Amino acid sequence: MKRLLILATPFIFLSCEPQENQQIILYEGPSKEGDKVEVYHSEGEHVKVKMIADKYLELQNGDLEFPQGIYLEFYDEAGALSSTLIANSAYYFKDEDKWRGRGKVEVKNILKNEQLNTEELFWKPDTQKIFTDKFVTIRLAAEVIYGTGLMANQDLSSYTITKPAGEFVIED
Predict the structure, then answer these.
(1) What whole-number distance in Å separates Cα of residue 98 and Cα of residue 122?
(2) CATH of domain 30-165
(3) pLDDT tens profile 40-64
(4) Which residues in 116-130 are b (16+ Cβ under 10 Å) and which e?
(5) Which of 126, 144, 73, 136 is nearest to 105 (CA)?
(6) How far, in Å, CA of 109 to CA of 82, rounded?
(7) For residue range 66-107, what is the model confidence (pLDDT) as tens digits?
């Protein structure tokens, strides 16, 4: 009987060891990452948009994040630089084909020497429109226009401020 008891004892201790709970952890971070990115979008022979960013993250769903800011240049049909856009951070919503710039957002029309400033701005590449419901400032050659809400062409050649404020001249 002694022998049987000695052999059974190690099996009792082995079966009493705690088992590790093996849990599968899904990775939810970016699928791609890049530093010092420069991208060109062209149609035919002409560059339409040039994008520069210090860092980008491509997320699992295809969205893009630019946590350190973004710089865009827009070119007209002849290939000449028409406007620029700068934002402290940016995000691209793939499903909506829509960009969002946040922080200090600035759009400049090079030809008219006009500048838009706001804290958040959206851009739709397919319609070439920019828009916001935030406070905006537009600096013209001789005046400054303030307001809340804006819909404009991406080059700032034409725009509508939803709720304008301040003093400005209206031409007939």
Answers:
(1) 7
(2) 2.60.450.10
(3) 888 888 888 899 999 999 998 899 9
(4) bbbeebbbeeeeeeb
(5) 136
(6) 6
(7) 999 999 999 988 889 999 999 999 999 999 999 999 999 999
